[in-house]
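ZP: hey, is the iron/sulfur cluster complex queued? I don't see it on the tracker
AM: it wasn't, my bad. submitting now with these inputs:
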Amino acid sequence: MKTAVQFGRTTKEFEIIESPIPHILVDSKKELHGWWEGIKPYGNRECTAERLLINPYNGCTHNCFFCYAHALGGYFKTFRKEGIVAVFRDFDRIISKQLDKLSVASCGYLSPVTDPFQPINKKYELSEKIIKEFVSRNIPVQFTTKGRIPDDAIRLIKRQEHSFGQVSILTTDEEKRKKLMDGKTPTDELFRNIERLADEDIFAVCRIDPVIPYVTAGREELEELVKRAVDSGAKHIIASCMDIPTSLKGEIYAKIEERFDISKNKLNRLFTERIRGDFNADMGYRRKLFRTLREICDRAGVTMALCMEFESVGGKNIKGLNREFMSSNNCEGIDVPIYVKKGDRFEPVEGCDGNCLGCYRSEKISVCGLPLNEAKAWKLRDYRKWSKEIKQETKEKGQKSITGDW
Ligand code: SF4
Ligand code: SF4
């Protein structure tokens, strides 16, 4: 059996492999890259730190009904229509070659639009192999999951001082969780993930991302969730309020109505703000929710930040809400510096706290000496350019470089 994947006007055919779940193998030379949007011109960047984004899979069988990746095209559309996951064949080797050409690297991020530990990963283990590529060079790497973290992933990131793990937990109510997603990892196992990270002294984050209005937004429920996360060892909470891509609005409303008995009219009255083309809950509702969460986190003695929460400030301009609600320095709760190659290993740049957005907003000269303080949407070619410059200067100055005397 074959499937055809559409990219604009072109179509590519792939053989479907049925076991253990339907998937296709894709040969691709896609490149590591930074965040999709920069702070200029409209204020679209809220992620404080720089990251190298990595998606070894497209399509995610956890299949959360609110997932924004369902609105994406290409392989994501094929997943949505046919339940077929795209697996990027030998992606770890492609990444290895890309990392080999760099002399400067930010923390790797598995994965912005899929779950790195979804069930298909058991067959290919691309996520563990990619983590290994980062850690073996002493480059930090982080993952976010709603699945069970494989033991190997924990064993590997333990070896790299700035690597960390994020566990996404939306509710403490297992029955509710099952109605939010097809993923089979039970709530207890998700909290256990946090414990397993904490037991190894690895920085653990709990993501309540997103909170679903009228479904998981009750104060007591959020208090219980934060308490369990902190008791399990989480050091930081990341939260957001569900927003809805225009193309998914009807479908998401129907599911919330059917599964949680919340009427479409009620949802329609709440999701009135259009930001970046998506429907957001009314600003008053979101501010109240984030104030509540901040209060809960302060009381529980844990830091908190929001993920991609904006308010419209006229025209296409938007303003991130973290300056109002974040209690940590970096939005992910941990300061991960930029790393530069020294000999055959990467080392952290002294004095860098990884908050590039902070450097953008400050008058100070950034210690990295790189344009990362412009907080743009960086590409691999930018990292290559900086790497060449670093190599050149290192050659000229012996052990010194543009990033200082490391
Ligand atoms: S686990 Fe994440 S990527 Fe996967 S469906 Fe849920 S929200 Fe989307
Ligand atoms: S010094 Fe500032 S701009 Fe440079 S990498 Fe560190 S946080 Fe980013």
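AM: back. Residues 60, 62-64, 67, 69, 114-115, 146, 181 surround iron/sulfur cluster (ligand 1) (CB under 6 Å).
ZP: great, adding it to the tracker
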